Amino acid sequence: MPTLLQRLVFQVGPVPNERAFVLSSVSTDGHYISLRPFVKPRNASEEAFPFEWVFAGTNQNVVVNQKSEAIVTQDFNNWFDSNVYLNLPNTHRGEINTTWENWESGCIAETGSVFPAGRELDGVPFFELWQPLDSTRDELVVSTPQNEKSASSAKSIVFKTTEGSGFDGLVVVTGRWAQGFLSKQNDGTINGMNFIRTLETGNSNVVQTLLQYGRDADKFPRKFDGIKLGDVVEANGLKWEVIESYL
Amino acid sequence: MPTLLQRLVFQVGPVPNERAFVLSSVSTDGHYISLRPFVKPRNASEEAFPFEWVFAGTNQNVVVNQKSEAIVTQDFNNWFDSNVYLNLPNTHRGEINTTWENWESGCIAETGSVFPAGRELDGVPFFELWQPLDSTRDELVVSTPQNEKSASSAKSIVFKTTEGSGFDGLVVVTGRWAQGFLSKQNDGTINGMNFIRTLETGNSNVVQTLLQYGRDADKFPRKFDGIKLGDVVEANGLKWEVIESYL
């Protein structure tokens, strides 16, 4: 079953807040992307690159361990990380160790530390709170025991750029919601990054673009019906392989 | 426009959590109730009274001040407070001063302090995070710019016990969601308290009981169509006056 999580709280230091509309998509097989656009960019730098952060990976990039009924650890070695791509100073490199605790309310609390000055120096602890959504719905509908049957019926499709294309990219479709990144190899500037968030609305499966960023954003796949594992789809000249498809 | 808020986070001390399924209903005219049932009561005491807290009041019991575009203060002198009703030791008495800040994400952060040992001693700061819901929906649907037209069309009805009935009670209906308290005067035990949470489902306006507590819970009004301001409705012998009705 794929999951779609909305972040409710981000906290580093004493004061919690949430300035972004963060959705994290996790496919049935564990491929993932977390897209973190600012709701209201505050300055020229945020206007030019209106994302707090984006990261993504396949299930080879994360190790998940169930520690107890309510607690899971996830250790991320992301395939794509916007901070790493841009080689931003004072940002974390390498594995990120996180702990996820299910609250009785249904939300999931994530804690961990990042090491922007390197592992040998003090880490910076963070807290994030996540709300599971019913990804089969075209609104933000909280996942509850009442709609879990609907939520568990969600489709899960993942597209990955093919070797030799000059790009790295992943699109994760969970239910009606798709998120993707596409980064140009050997670029390392904001001009090399592309992101998309789409939503299938209504019964006719019209794919609505909620967010699109980057000069190569027309190279994302945008049709998600009749997709089979192993298919190769082409979008404006770029080839994507379907590495997962549960319909 | 009435509002229905779901609490996402409750924090006293260093660690946030959420053990309750809290909804706060606020009518168009500002009458309110906050019902805070535990999701999983943990001991005999919590089984007997499975609520973290319940409080309610009319718009005479709260003073609201807009401090800036994103910040509002609310000073509560609750009409009903389950801790006060039970005369629980080490719980707050009197006015509670709170500050509400709209986050860019759409959630609302509430901060304040309570004084369980009295005003002359140190207060205990708390943090609560609230998610506005579209109360016209029969699921937990997040209120967003996309559905604000629907949310703003919600009906708002308030019932109040009549004088001389031997009970204090208030039922606040916001959209499809109703919450109420009914407390027996001069009782002061858990046997004197009654609470209800109902939800109108489907097009036929079937009122589904989500939560019911107390031996007099059959005295709550449970029909919310065709209600007019000034009506007096009777429920198993108890009379309720309609003090607000926007349909």
TrEMBL record, chains A, B:
Chief location: cytoplasm
GO terms, biological process: protein targeting to membrane
GO cellular component: endoplasmic reticulum membrane; nucleus
Family of this protein: Belongs to the HRI1 family.
Keywords assigned by UniProt, alphabetized: Cytoplasm, Nucleus
Protein known as: Protein HRI1
Transmembrane residue ranges: none
Protein location: Cytoplasm; Nucleus
Source organism (scientific name): Torulaspora delbrueckii
Presence of keyword Nucleotidyltransferase: no
Gene that encodes it: TDEL0G03700
Cytoplasm keyword on record: yes
